Amino acid sequence: MIETTIGIDGMMCDMCEAHINDAIRRNFTVKSAKANRHKKCCVVVSEQPLDENKIREVIAATGYNLLSISSGPYQKKGLFGLF
Q1: 7, 51 in Cβ contact below 8 A?
Q2: Residue 8, class by beta-carbon neighbours within 10 Å (0-12 exposed, 13-18 middle, 19+ buried)?
Q3: Radius of gyration of the CA atoms of the chain, in A
Q4: If 0-12 CB within 10 Å is exposed, 13-18 middle and 19+ buried, where does residue 29 land?
Q5: How many Cβ atoms sit within 10 Å of the Cβ of residue 3?
């Protein structure tokens, strides 16, 4: 599993977060997509690495500003991630 963190500027409310989540889910096969306007990012968990050029296109189409893209192995967090 791969965790991709996409830095995004311009999100102001819950609907902005939902707009980003929907755009990611429509354009990629993902396990989860969680945008956070306070942290200015969207964390995406997927089986395969995401195409960075396509991420740029998708975010640009939403009207928000792409700040950064970083990927790494997904590590489950929380109590059940310990076992």
Answers
A1: no
A2: buried
A3: 13
A4: exposed
A5: 16
What's the pTM value of the predicted model, to 2 decimals? 0.86
* Whole-number Å distance between alpha carbons of 36 and 82: 25
Render pLDDT for 19-77 as a digit per residue (tens, 0 to 9): 999 999 999 999 999 999 999 999 999 999 999 999 999 999 999 999 999 999 988 77
DSSP the chain: -EEEEEEEE---SHHHHHHHHHHHHHHS--SEEEEETTTTEEEEEESS---HHHHHHHHHHHTPEEEEEEEEE----SGGGG-
The encoded tokens of residue 60 equal 């640009």
* Measured distance CA(52)–CA(39) in Å, rounded: 20
Q: Which pLDDT tens digit goes with each residue over 50-63?
A: 999 999 999 999 99
